[in-house]
Amino acid sequence: MISDENVLSFLDLLDLDEELIDSRLKSIMSRREISDKHLVSAIHLLQYKQLVNLQENSECDNEEEYEFCTKLVREVNVSNIENVCKIITIALGLNSSTLVNKCEHFIQQILSELPPKDEPDDTRAILILKVTDSILHAVSNCSTKLFLPLLEIPVKNILCSSNENMKIQFLSSTVPKMFAAVTGFNILDSIWDFVKHLHDDNRSIALKVLSSLSDYYLPTPDNSGVVLFESKIVLQAEFWQTILYGLLSTDLLLRKLSIYLAKRALDCVLAMKKDVLVEHNGNIIFQWIHAESNSLKTMWDNYFILIDSLEEKQSNIVLPSLNLFPSLKAMGHWLNCAFNIGLKHDNIQVRLKCINHRLEIKLNSKTEAIVLLEALNYINIYDNTHEVEALKKKFSMFVKDKDILLYIIASIPMLQWSPVPLYHLSCILSDEDLKNKITLAGEHIVPIILDILKIPCNNVPLRKAIHINIAYFVGNCCSGLHWREYANIYLCLQMDLSNTSIDKNPFLNLIKKMINEDGIFFDFIQQSYLNIDFGLFYLQQHKEELPIYIDILHEKIKKIDNITNRHYSDKRECLDDVIYLNQLICKTDNKNHDNVINIRETINTIISSNFKTILLYISSLLVNNTILTIEEIALISDGLHSIFNARNIEQIKEAMLQLYKMSVLFTKDKNVALESVILSLHIIHGLTNNSVLLSIPEQERLNVQDVLKIAANFESKQSIGRLRNMFYEKSCEIVFEMLNQKYCCTDTHTDSILEYIQVVLDCGGYGCLQLCLKIINKMLPFVLMRTDTKFNMEQFICRMWKEIEELKSNNQYTPCIREFINLITHEHLLRLPTFNNIVLLYCKKIVDYGPVKVTPLFYLISKLNSTVLTVDHGHVIYILCDILMFSPVPRKDQRIIENLLVKILKEAKYGFDQTYLGTHFNFEVNYCSVLILSKIKDTEILCTIEKFIKNKIDESFKNKQRYHGHSQGHRLLLTGLQHLLLISLMKVNNSGTRTDPTEDMNWCIELLKKLPHQISVRICLEWYIALHLVKMKISLNEELLESFNDIPLISQLFVLYWTAKRIILSEKDDASGQFEFVMDFLLCHTMGPMFNTRLHAQYLATKLNEVSHIIIPKYPFIMTLIERTFKEGENDKNYVKIKDDYFINNFDIIQDLTPSFIYYFLPKYCEINNEFIDIDYVRSTFNAVNSNISDNMLSTDFHKEWVDFHRTDDEIFSLNICNEEGGKLYEGIEASGTIQKKYVPWKNMSDVYVYEAERKKENKSELIVVASLIDKLPNLGGMARTSEVFGVKTYVVDSLRHLQDKQFQSLSVSAERWINVEEVRPGQALKQYLIAKKSEGYCVVAAEQTSTSVKLQNFQFPMKTLLLLGHEKEGIPCDLLPIMDYCVEIPQQGFVRSLNVHVTAAIFIWEYTRQNIL
């Protein structure tokens, strides 16, 4: 409203005729079409009438104006709504006596137009709400209220609408005005009645609504401490449940809203000064005891601190705050909200500690169990062995509560598991501590266990281990189930437990004790061959019931015999019985079950006496052209091997020969169904090497040529898919078996077989690849001898590689790649130089693929291990060199899986056969390559390998200035130096070769000078130099020191100390002089400027003096002083560390020059190595290596000395590797950290007003920060954080993709979520953007030093400022400087040219904020 003084002066100025005003207004109101100009004129005229009323303190009749308003409302639209609202407010206020009646009628009339349907007309609804606001505004101006008891507002439709503008209008304007101007109808109650009934994800609506209207729902004391009215919703369960929903949400905004509401609600409760107890279904949701207000307030404050800290990403912020968990246990279910964030934290240290805290609080629902298991289902937390074992021990104690165990078990199938976490969880469940403490029974537990067993796992060893662990769990905790439930579980266990010791497997103990109460057990056993294992194991423990099972078998045999002898019977009628018996034959084969002979032998004897019946039935299948499926053919053929090798073979000889002859005839008949041909091939394959065939004339037996003709006939048959593949697989197997027979003349069939191989590769499936390779390997000598053949070996090798690479499953890939390696490393192929390139090509590929697929590389190195290397095998030596330098850096998840596999493959509990599994590791390749290296006797080959290693290292570090620990460079360098050390033991000095004897040592010296090294590499280099000084008998003198120039001083100390120590121990002739030289060198550095150098020099001098038997008068007094100094500082951590260092105190360059020390102890001691190895495999390999070295040992003085003094492997493996991993993963951070109390009062949480447009405009800053010229992500992320903290209006970057980068996010800490970020590319787009902003009134300021730049302290920032930041190096481009309004610089006092751009931006933004906002 205009003030009285302004009204009077305005009237005096105009002094218009009222009648003229009225007539003009009526003419406008009477118009049929009213434009915006007319509305503006109407507003001016109504304002004049309002001013007249105010001057005369009177009222005028406003009926016509009221009608005009109703007319305008009917025609209102988006373009004129503002003017219409102004007219309504002024017109209704012209007569206060009729205001209430008119407004009550008017407001009910227009609100009734709000569409009641679920999806209202949003545009019309917004206009209606704005009109309503104008009416209520008129009421408030007159300081009166409306009485509307029957008012109806479709709250649900408005709040559930997808139109944010409508909700903003309703909540930020309509609701407050209605609350202030309407009685008889409480809009807040209507809204609460709606939102409190929202459930699930719809509760997000409730959170946003309550946050927007928190001033009304959650009133707090004013400045004088008075609360105008008491909040009611804090006493209702629905309110606290809504807050809990938000805190448990994964949406960061909803969590912010919930925290805001919770903080504000607590202030309301505190102001009420009374006890509050909120319950739901008998459970306490919220409780406040007024007498304990202070302690409760502290507890809730700590809770909010914990929640806020968990939102951070940096572990140094989060970890200290986690110490608050123990003090918050009284908060009960509210802690789940903190755990819900912490257990999903990206930082491993935070997640691990949250898991540990969660295990101290009981689970109360399956939802809580799922959150806990999701935290455990993260492979990276299983990297630290000590942490994992501690966690598993704590979890084992946690699940001893039956309710908790049930929640955990029921939740496991609901997750998509990674194999490693699932294995560790199954280990916990298999813990014997659960036995006799918890018993889970009832039908509900079995489906859960079956679902767990069905969880997919592609890693075969891990899947088997998990299943065995689950079997242990069932045996320990699930006694008392029905035998059928045990059978169902047994069928899902993807392994044969029949060979497992009963005493060790509790699940088998349960089967042993189970009772066949209902008499239908044997009906179940005979239903399917899948039940045979379960039935046999049961009978093994219940021998008294064996006769019942034998009777069942006799019935089956009788049925088969009957159907076989009936000419017109359906042969498929007893097919299942034949399959059952065939599988039973396999299961009861005594060759496979020597430990459980009794029952199985009895059953096998019964069936074997009826083998003839089975063979006759199979013959009848062929005669009657019975079509079988591939699966049925495979199941029948499984038992044929046992039948054909039976002990009673003479009794069934006739039936076998009849079946064989019939099969031969069927394979040659072109009119026979393909299924029958395949069955015949299975029979022929089973009998190919059988002694029974010797009684048949040779012309009646199939030979290779016959099989090839059968294959040629098959080409005319129309077939696709699995039948064709099986035909070729079986024919290949028969051909291979025949080629292995003594009487087979391979040379005569070479061309035919090669043509056959081409056909098989073109038409057969992937299953034929291994067989084709086997056949070629068998025939290779004859193939290479033939010069007239069309077969191209190089093309064949290339094709086989491509085919193998396309294989998807490991059970196909592993045998195929093994045969491929046998081919390319075949001795006949290696002899021919023609194939050198192709052999090198694919061996190099195998080595290159090693980090991803190590199994082929293991097969290759194993094959090379059986090859005698000579100088003629140049390409093979090159391959060996490549493998020797194989030093992969596995991904973290890959390393964790491999470490676990190494562990479980050694556990007897799982009974793994590693050879059968085909699982191999990097360490096996590395140690096997060392084994091959140790076999080499030829010095020329050793020198070639040595040269290759040096060249490889030189090439890799040609342009490198440094490398990191455990990086590819570190591993390659260490691996190469380890081999060089071993080679230095194996060969004589280079004096007999064409190379300089000191070349090797000088190479190491140069490498030591070139760049800083990791400790293991540094030791190897120093060791190598010292070793060559001893081998070449180089004197320790000033001339030698000159060659050590630029070598780190510490390295010089160690080289001289180790060399002198060995010379003294060897009692060389010139030991005294060299001892004195080294002692003087060490002592001259005992008072050097560097503490570390002084300490090492002093300590090495004392150790060398202790070793020496040489007495020189000048040293004892100095040694006494040094020892006294050490005694005074014996607790100093540097002294303690150096006193425990093996390489300072115990190391000897000759004694420790053993393979086990070089390859095992050295890397383990110097660095924390998280890669596990099989110690038994390593020791057995070193035994072989030592044996090879001893056999090839030379007779030089150096080697004789080594033989006399070197340590044994037992001594090496008994050494204490003190640097192994251990300790807490987070102990350093946790111990030193303090809790950063980033507690934000609810009054400062401005970002939670999600529906309040006015509050969103509270940010007064008009600053735009343009960082499009900056390309370093840490700087961009840091500036985003600074911009958010100081309320920058817009932050501009060159690409929005930066916001997803981890480098950006690590500095921004989620700031990008809360500020307006725009993308403007550098170049022309940026120039246009700056010009556009200038046209909008922005002052464009550049942070740049120029000849006309202004000092920052002297510059006044306009409110509308655009700050342009330059590139980190080039600054702001010259073509942009003319666009700048000002260039501003920060005064500097130092010598450095400029500040970091992030720091510069922070200073500018702070100065702008200080001048314009604060």
From TrEMBL:
GO process annotations (BP): tRNA methylation
**Enzyme class, first EC level, given as a word:** transferase
Q: Which residues form the signal peptide?
A: none
Name the job this protein performs. S-adenosyl-L-methionine-dependent 2'-O-ribose methyltransferase that catalyzes the formation of 2'-O-methylguanosine at position 18 (Gm18) in a subset of tRNA. Selectively mediates Gm18 methylation of tRNAGln-TTG/CTG and tRNASer-TGA/GCT. Gm18 modification can enhance the stability of modified tRNAs.
**What protein name applies here?**
tRNA (guanosine(18)-2'-O)-methyltransferase TARBP1
Coiled-coil spans in chain: none
Q: Name one GO molecular function term.
A: RNA binding
Species, as recorded: Diatraea saccharalis (sugarcane borer)
Domain named tRNA/rRNA methyltransferase SpoU type: which ranges?
1263-1405
The record's catalysed reaction(s) read: guanosine(18) in tRNA + S-adenosyl-L-methionine = 2'-O-methylguanosine(18) in tRNA + S-adenosyl-L-homocysteine + H(+)
